[in-house]
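Researcher: Re-running this chain for the archive, since the previous output was lost when a drive failed. Same request as before.
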Amino acid sequence: EEEGRKIRKTIWMVTLLLAVVTAVEVALGAFWKEWFPGAWHLVKWTFIVLTLVKATYIVMTFMHLGDERRNIRALILLPYALFLLYLVFIAIWESNYVNRAWEMFL
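Model: Regenerated C-alpha cells:
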C-alpha cells in the first residue's frame, strides 16, 4: 500500500507540473501579444522550450529514465535528439528553398 501511495503521489505531481506549464503556455498565447506586441517571436521560442521541458519530464518520469544512470539516459535520448535536430535542419532547409522559389516566381 505504501508503494501505491508513492506512485499515486508521483503521478499527481507530474499532472500538476504539466498542468501548470500548460497553463503558462495558454496564458502566454492568449495575452502576450497584447502585453508585448513586438515580441511575438519570443513567445514562439518560449512555446518550443516549454514543450521540450514537458516532453523531457514525461519521458524521464513515465519511461523511468529518471532512475537510470546518466550514461543509460544519454544512450536512449541521444538518438532522439539527433533525429529531432535532423528534422529541424530539413525544415529550415526546405523553408529557405520555398522562400527563394516564391521570391523568384512571384
